[in-house]
Amino acid sequence: MMATYNCGALVFALHTSELMQVALPLYQRIGFKWWSTVPMIHGVKYDVYAKQLDS
Question: From the centroid of its chain, how far is CA 1?
């Protein structure tokens, strides 16, 4: 019998930049949705994407 554990996380989040043009469509295909914009880093725009985890 395999044990399962619930760490309590409800959302998985990641950040991506406008430079990651290949990664963003991949993240969106697997269910990540735009969450918010974060401050620019070295002149590059970043956004946070999140995915609701199944409980």
Answer: 32
User: What phi and psi values does residue 23 have, to the nearest 5 degrees?
Assistant: -70, -40
d(CA 2, CA 53): 20
In sequence order, the β-bridge partners of residue 18 are none
Tens of pLDDT, residues 1-54? 555 566 677 888 999 998 999 999 999 999 999 999 999 999 999 999 999 987
Return the sign of the alpha-carbon dihedral for residues 44, 53, 27, 35: negative
Contacts 24+ apart (CB under 8 A), 2-10: 6/55, 9/53, 10/52, 10/53, 10/55
